[in-house]
Automatic annotation (TrEMBL), chains A, B:
In the C-terminal section; belongs to the class-I pyridoxal-phosphate-dependent aminotransferase family. This is PLP-dependent aminotransferase family protein. The keyword Nucleus does not apply. Keywords: Aminotransferase, DNA-binding, Pyridoxal phosphate, Transcription, Transcription regulation, Transferase. Pfam families: Aminotran_1_2, GntR. InterPro entries: Aminotransferase_I/II_large, HTH_trans_reg/aminotransferase, PyrdxlP-dep_Trfase, PyrdxlP-dep_Trfase_major, PyrdxlP-dep_Trfase_small, Tscrpt_reg_HTH_GntR, WH-like_DNA-bd_sf, WH_DNA-bd_sf. The keyword Methyltransferase does not apply. Gene3D superfamilies: Aspartate Aminotransferase, domain 1, Type I PLP-dependent aspartate aminotransferase-like (Major domain), Winged helix-like DNA-binding domain superfamily/Winged helix DNA-binding domain. Residues 10-78 form the HTH gntR-type domain. GO terms for molecular function: DNA binding; DNA-binding transcription factor activity; pyridoxal phosphate binding; transaminase activity.
Length: 500, 500
């Protein structure tokens, strides 16, 4: 049914363009080669000449083909391939309190606003059918078993969903029982409960740098300190740095996003995971592993959870896994889970005292969606869409942002981390962009120490529309204006560069 | 539709019995009077003689009628009218840490178990139609607006629901704007957020004694201390005691359940509310008002919220109102709200950092349920059912429990607080009862100081079945056995009463 739907909704010329891109990507049409003539392609694909012309125009707009007079269309080198990646981060070596909460709340409020292109959110919304499927399961379950909802759900969550999560984690390399799992209201709540279970106010925790601002917020809310670890944009946190942190006993816990990191899109290599788990076991320090994007990596197989490298029973594990479906099925369901290892009793108790339990019906519907294979099918569909959108967004940024911009090469998820020229203030850029109807996420919120002021995070998970395409040139123009204003100020009489 | 359904499901003789009870309750048939003869009533109500006989047998079983040979049936005095109420509580005068969490978690886990008569829960489940109605609204909303669920809900909650809550609070005497309201995952989460916003670990907070164990749990989780206030089973906490607490600056906040208290069922008089609000304003101490049972009081009008006595704009108020629909519509929805007064910004931020927001769809459905008048109609229906069930349960307890038992006279909700003879250990009673398939809530969990060991809380909100009727005689037998065992032990040689 979805296929029919998607075919009937996509114009034919877009289908043709997609086929050409596939030929470019798989090497059939290498960079510099001449694309088939309009006429021959029309015959070959059994479409009209005007359809092929429309497809080639689209590919020209997207920077994939370049027309040469009297000669036809040629495959262009991708601009983004000439753009550098960010370097390994170098955060301060001491732990600090976290205090930029108000900006984060402002951002969170903006994300939901109608009329704003939400490039600042981290919201995978390319397809609404998984939401429809889960909602429809909710309807049928509520009709067939209304009394299930007449009582409080158990604190650890509905057994049917815990069974499905345990089954799902086989592909993450983990042998789990439903009793190892606690269902939460989203993955952030899971991280909150884990940190509560293993820390006291005033303790320090190690984090990647940059890292998801929600984690920093939790650290602030619990009165903890953040120790940021140098982090590579492809392979994640430096194990050497962590070794020092552990040996000097600088932290009480560590919170990482090893799979399709937010905001970097990095995947920690298997060997690093193995080593890291050995380190946390030796140091007797809990590793809180945020797996919220792990089901969205571009190249199968799905990465093994760090938990899978911790041998022995789950009830002895130092790895506390946190996950959920906000990035895959729908954020509005607010369903996450926690696999707290040796702290399962503490986390269950805290979940109960916090808000008793997660709502019943979404849990039952999600369990059925997973059981019937809907979740798996959905993932296969969306990851290829996200991959394509991340590539297209990188192209647009390469084209419209200043030359010395750096862009990550995400290996999963739908986020891009963009390093703008040093002089850029992304909070100012954010304020200007909102007035133009575009939200971005300024880099400062990804650090406890005010770093990354010249960085922004861009969401590529939106429903792809012409407005999204136009948002990047709009941002590019604002950036150019801000740079020009900065340069003019620098050359004005009386300007003191040291005060900049 | 509901009427038809309920008529077709209730046997005719129960309808007849209900009519007789109404005549007793409204004084048409006073205590001691002779009920109409079987034959005359059959003619009058146009039912068969055997139906009237069945109805009279039921009323005899329920202790409402007493047969006298050759004379007919007579109206009995209610046993519960001869049973005393508990006295004003007398908790210790110093604040203490809270630490009986494991017992509470065990209870919470039991509540959801199939095959257990959940007299230990606090779960109003007499009718499933409100759940069905809300679920059906969820279905239609998800069909008509699927994309609403493709993004994160705003941290404060969906505007439509906040508008409805603001409108609803007009009958609580409050003038609110939607911006004064934060939607939460249940009322307990609202209390948690309020306490986080206004206290620091180590602070003391004033509570009723006994009070809802979830509040004590939150106090424990946040590292606070509990100062229990002497509390009257009809009118609530002693204002004199609070005056001393405020003047000596012993607490940083106060958490009360002024309307249909859990577990006492008390309603704080309006004059006390007015005085209390003046006191908290003068002392500059936030009053957290748990209103979760406020829509379930037996005698209209619904009590005015303490907030309504705090003049001036909501954004200046010292009263932080917490409420929700877990006791009215369905606990499985996990929807609550907070009206944090002058701390609205802090509470919104903490809600965002805790778990981003409450799920979208249940919020929208509940808003529509309230808007269409469904919530109001539902309340009118269930409160009369709860009132009847509370009375019936009191009768059963009066009949089957020891003579010196004391029972509260709830003015709303569906809970009874039962004071058993001093020597009873309700934790032991709980353990024995669970083996017989009946859960109760032992009194110790309602105190920070281990008080109320001889008390239990009984849920009258269950779907009323013959199993529920039989659970109280079962408990009565267990209590008698425990008392006998105690007395035997006391008369055994070598027994030292001082060690009891």
């Amino acid at each position: 049914m979805e296929n029919t739907q998607s075919k009937s909704q996509t114009p034919l010329y877009e289908d043709v363009a997609r086929q050409i891109i596939e030929m470019i990507d798989n090497g059939t049409l290498p960079v510099g080669s001449r694309a088939p003539s309009v006429r021959s392609l029309a015959v070959q694909l059994k479409v009209s000449v005007s359809t092929v012309v429309a497809a080639y125009r689209l590919l020209e707009d997207q920077g994939r083909l370049q027309p040469r007079p009297q000669s036809g269309f040629y495959v262009r080198a991708l601009r983004r391939e000439n753009v550098e990646e960010p370097l390994m981060s170098r955060p301060p070596e001491t732990a600090s309190a976290v205090t930029v909460g108000d900006l984060r709340l402002l951002l969170l409020t903006e994300f939901g606003q109608p009329g704003i292109i939400g490039l600042g959110a981290s919201n995978g919304a390319v397809s609404d059918w998984s939401i429809k499927a889960v909602h429809s399961l909710m309807s049928s379950i509520s009709r067939s078993q209304p009394l299930l909802s007449a009582s409080y759900p158990p604190p650890a969550g509905m057994a049917t969903l815990r069974r499905q999560v345990a089954r799902w984690y086989i592909r993450a390399g983990c042998k789990l029982s439903p009793d190892d799992i606690v269902i939460t209201c989203g993955a952030l709540e899971a991280i909150h409960l884990c940190l509560r279970a293993v820390t006291q106010p005033g303790d320090a925790v190690a984090l990647e740098s940059p890292t998801y601002w929600g984690i920093l917020q939790t650290v602030e809310m619990l009165g903890l300190k953040a120790l940021e670890i140098p982090t590579h944009p492809r392979t994640g946190p430096s194990l050497d740095a962590l070794e020092v942190v552990f040996s000097q006993k600088l932290v009480k816990a560590i919170v990482l996003i090893p799979s399709a990191h937010n905001p970097l899109g990095s995947i920690m290599p298997e060997e690093n995971r193995r080593q890291l788990v050995a380190m946390v076991r030796k140091a007797d320090i809990p590793l809180i592993e945020d797996e919220i994007y792990a089901d969205l990596v571009f190249e199968p197989p799905r990465p093994r959870s760090c938990r899978s490298f911790d041998e022995g029973p789950s009830s002895q594990s130092h790895v506390m896994v946190c996950g959920g479906v906000s990035k895959t099925v729908a954020p509005s369901l607010r369903i996450g889970w926690c696999i707290p290892g040796k702290w399962v009793k503490e986390v269950t108790r805290m979940k109960a005292w916090l808000n008793i339990a997660a709502p019943t019906l979404p849990q039952l519907a999600l369990a059925q969606f997973m059981d019937e294979g809907g979740y798996d099918r959905h993932l296969r569909k969306v990851t290829s869409i996200y991959r394509r959108q991340v590539e297209r967004m990188s192209e647009l940024i390469a084209e419209h942002f200043p030359r010395d911009t750096r862009i990550t090469r995400p290996q999963g998820g739908f986020l891009l981390w963009v390093e703008l020229p040093e002089i850029m203030d992304s909070v100012t850029l954010h304020d200007r962009a909102i007035q133009k109807g575009v939200s971005i996420c300024p880099g400062v919120v990804f650090s406890a120490t005010g770093k990354y002021r010249n960085c922004i995070r861009i969401n590529c998970g939106l429903l792809w529309t012409p407005e999204v395409e136009r948002a990047i040139p709009t941002l590019g123009k604002l950036i150019a204006e801000l740079i020009e204003a900065h340069q003019n100020a620098a050359t004005e009489p009386g300007y003191d560069a040291t005060q900049c």
